[in-house]
Amino acid sequence: MDWNEVTSGSNPYVVTKTSNIPGKSVIEIPGLIFGDKQKRVSRIGVGMTLTESMIELASALRLDVLVVHHPVAEAANSGGVPFADYLPLYGLSIIEMHEAFHGLHPGLTFLHGHRKLKTDTSFGGIPGNVLHKGVAFEEVRTAGDILNRIGEWMGREIDRDLLEAERVIRGETALEEATISNPAKLLSGTPDSPVKHVLHFFPHTGFSLEHLESALAMYPETDTIIVSISRVREDHEFVKLARLRGLTFIVGNPHSVEIWENGLPLAYALEMLLPKTEVILLRERMTAVPLRNVGHAKMVEYGKAIAETHLVSGVSRAVYI
Fold it and tell me: Helix 237-244 vs helix 209-218: angle between axes, to the nearest 10 degrees?
């Protein structure tokens, strides 16, 4: 509500995210990013990451405001053009949440089978570097129980059936989808490994091996490590450390289902707080298919013709410095 928070340092959730790539940093500003704060709102869309597809869907649904979890950046999240040229076409306002929302509810830990006892949203002094310390629910006794719980709560069979149907309809037997391609996995331990004391974190937030060693020193009773939202592979240093110390290591939910983990509670909260508004949940699916397996013959013909005629043949217009 107050743009002075951006420069004054009074809001701890206004942070700059950067990899030090010139011109690519972004300031997270939880609150109203674009639009008139006095505008009347009757239809609210809740999503995770703003894209041009979401903007176009919001237009079709005649939404007044989009509340998105992840920070937004002009052009990057709006089809390569400024917000001021795009969003007014549809009367759309944008609110972002991200770090101001993290840590407000125990949903992610609940879905992964443990009750959080403590949460640090800036572990190691890094904003957004979230660490949960938890204890397994009474009914969760083994690593296998956690894997089964994730599958049951997230309804993976629905996404699996949807993908199979889409493969048939499109004639693309090699079609893949983000959620189904990234199942929960056990990378250290066995399905029968006992679970009691859990550390749960998110590798993409800047969580390092040194952070993990520090966390294990703080909570030496830990027997299970869970990472979710982002992934690590079998040869990652986190997994190697877990195996060295005899700890169970589980890769949980992928980023593609955070719309359920964080988006759904937010949507219901808005509905409860603003009972006269209609709240719509916006979920995007990401699919992939090998080029040789694209099933739409007419578009295959189009793609090949355009590539051959305009993109491959002729004199290169590339500029070399």
Answer: 30
Euclidean distance between CA atoms 33 and 71, whole angstroms: 9
> Residue 229 in contact with residue 147, Cβ under 8 Å?
no
Rounded Cα gap, residues 293 and 105, in angstroms: 43
CA distance 86 to 95: 16
Quick one: how far is CA 141 from the chain centroid? Answer: 28
The torsion region of residue 70 among left (phi > 0), alpha (psi -120 to 50) and beta comes to beta
Q: How far is CA 232 from the centre of its chain?
A: 15
Q: Please say whether the beta carbons of 284 and 53 come within 8 A.
A: yes
Which distant-in-sequence residues (6+ apart) come within 8 Å of 46 by Cβ? 66, 67, 68, 263, 266, 267, 270, 279, 280, 281, 282
Continuous segment of H or E residues that includes residue 96 = strand 93-96
Encode pLDDT of 23-51 as tens digits: 999 999 999 999 999 999 999 999 999 99
pLDDT at position 248 is 98
186 vs 240: CA distance, rounded Å: 13
**Beta strands 15-17 and 197-201, pairing class:** unpaired
Question: Amino acid identity of 1?
Answer: M
Tell me the whole-structure pTM to 2 decimals. Answer: 0.92
pLDDT digits (tens, 9 = 90+) for 267-321: 999 999 999 999 999 999 999 999 999 999 999 999 999 999 999 987 777 777 7
